Amino acid sequence: PSVFSYFSPGYRVANTRNGVGAPLVGPEFQILTAVTALERANFVGDLLGGHFGADVAFDLSPFSGLARDPAALVDACNLQFMGGRMSTDERTDIIAAIRATPQTNPVERARTALYLTLVAAQSQIDR
Known about the structure:
Elements: H1 34-49, H2 61-64, H3 70-82, H4 88-99, H5 106-119
Helix pairs in contact: 1-5, 3-4, 3-5, 4-5
């Protein structure tokens, strides 16, 4: 009878607090573990790195075309994958990470922006 399927609708997320000090309710977090979080990060890295063979491809060109301007690249990732809801701090950190790669390597800059956007907890929320 729950919309949460086999998740307990009363599941409380450890180490979180609401406005009155009680742990936050989050049934969907019953399946989030350190292992599943790392599996997601590894999957994204493998996808962007082309490790699934010739049958699976991720077109980096819309993003590598923006790689000269890290802010524009991050804004495109934000819009595409986070619906424009990326936090200011996260945006600043991703821009800094992109700038660590030379402008002469736009593909790696695009991969960096995409990877950091897609593995961020904020991008894993479907709204």
